[in-house]
Amino acid sequence: MKRLKLRGRAWWRGLIVLVLLAVAASLVYGWMDYQRFVRTPLTVSVQTPSIDVARGNSLRDVVAQLREQHVTSTGPLYWRVLAEQLRVAGRLHAGEYALPSGMTPRDLLLNMAAGKVLQRNFTIVDGWNFRELRQALAKADRLRQDAAGLDDAGLMAKIGASGEMPEGRFLPETYAYVKGDSDLDILRRAHAAMTRMLDTLWAQRDKDLPLATPYDALILASIVEKETGRADERPRIAGVFVRRLQTRMLLQTDPTVIYGMGESYAGNIHKSDLTTDTPYNTYTRQGLPPTPIAMPGKPAIEAALHPAAGSELYFVAKGDGTHVFSSTLDEHNRNVACYQLKRCP
Questions:
Q1: Which CATH code of 3.40.640.10, 3.30.1490.480, 3.40.50.11690, 3.10.20.600 fits the domain covering 39-118?
Q2: CB-count burial class (<10 Å; 0-12, 13-18, 19+) for 188
Q3: How does pLDDT run across 98-140, given as a tens digit for each residue?
């Protein structure tokens, strides 16, 4: 009888040991599996570049979304444990978050806790006109289109610049934005940036310029911007136009004529275009045109406010992106014959 009791006790002890070993093995496996989950990058692809977390979403909601996007196959338990371990549970922010290659669950939770939402960039290119700027904004990824349907005057009123003509008023620069931002948000920032920079540079301008206001400088800078993309030529071209303004010569610059032609410009400018009067035809009208003709960058504005000294009054495109400058009409005519008509001596 005693032997039976001893055997029974031994059997139970063995069973308990086996159960404890099984539990321990399960815990070890679970911990190792959890560590694998923490270290293993998420499954991301070009089809799942980001996750958009709505306001009010719980961690369980986020995990469900990640599973729907096939970014993770792990259930919410491990995610909850990781969030508690990182002390971010209940501190996850709404927004759109990037899912780059190599990102781990830990990386994603830390980004969400810090509110490191996905930023996109929109670049206003030096020399764009306002029509081109609006067209580019309309194609920007994940940018809310609040300006759609607004005419230029209505748009300027929306950004707090009522009565201003939009051309030239927005600083060419790269602007970061997040999902939920609108085209008007970018335009407000670009307008404010241009105003600040123009005011600063205007205060540092050369003396005795034939420019009465910062807006005059913006107009001249836009012409310089369209005439050349070469940094070394901008001050020289600005100098030519400044001397022409000082001596009341016609500016005679093709980019203003092209701007005045609007959408009728088909890529070529003809002699008849130079004689057709518009407010922007500097072959028929003296002085600066009524508005800028493009968005000038900072270097073009600096050139307009600090033009190169000299006697040059003319320049001709050489066909290689550079220009040849001259001080007399005779010399200019020889340059035209050589570089435009290909009649070099």
A1: 3.30.1490.480
A2: middle
A3: 999 999 999 999 999 999 999 999 999 999 999 999 999 999 9
Q: Work out whether strand 95-98 and strand 323-326 pair parallel, antiparallel, or are unpaired.
A: unpaired
Using the structure block, give the residue that is written with the tokens 């540079």.
201
What DSSP letter does each residue of 23-74 carry, written as one string? HHHHHHHHHHHHHHHHHSPP---TT-SEEEE-TT--HHHHHHHHHHTTS---
* Domains of the chain, residue spans: 39-118, 120-199, 204-339
Cβ neighbours of residue 103 under 8 Å, at least 6 residues apart?
41, 42, 44
Q: What dihedral angle (degrees, nearest 10) is formed by the CA atoms of 208, 214, 217, 218?
A: 180
- DSSP code, position 272: H
Express each pLDDT in 145-183 by its tens digit: 999 999 999 999 999 999 999 999 999 999 999 999 999
What global pTM score does this model have?
0.84
User: Which runs of consecutive H residues, i.e. helices, occur in the chain?
Assistant: 2-39, 59-68, 76-86, 105-114, 130-138, 152-158, 183-203, 214-227, 234-246, 254-261, 271-275, 298-305, 329-339
